[in-house]
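Q: Sequence in, structure out?
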Amino acid sequence: MRIDPEEYVELVLTCVEQIPRGRVSTYGAIAEAVGEAAGGGGPRQVGSIMAAYGGPVPWWRVVRADGSLPPSHQGEARQAYLEEGTPLRPSGNVDIARALWRPPPRG
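A: Exactly. Output:
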């Protein structure tokens, strides 16, 4: 069962709002969590939603599977990670092994 695209946007943004301070989730984990309720969708769709609508939510808490962000977001995100105590690797990427938060499935 497919849902309305606007509802999918809301599911994604609601999921991102639930990521605790100092933790992160991945585009893929969010896509998995909302996918059952939405009837599909993947990491790229989540990324597109975050690019278009993610400003009001803690967007820096959504990272690539390797713990990185697009280069254009790294400076601002790094400051938020330091303020929140998010575990980082020496490379500056988020330490996924220590910081990953998996959203519960939405079904």
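The longest strand covers residues 25-26.
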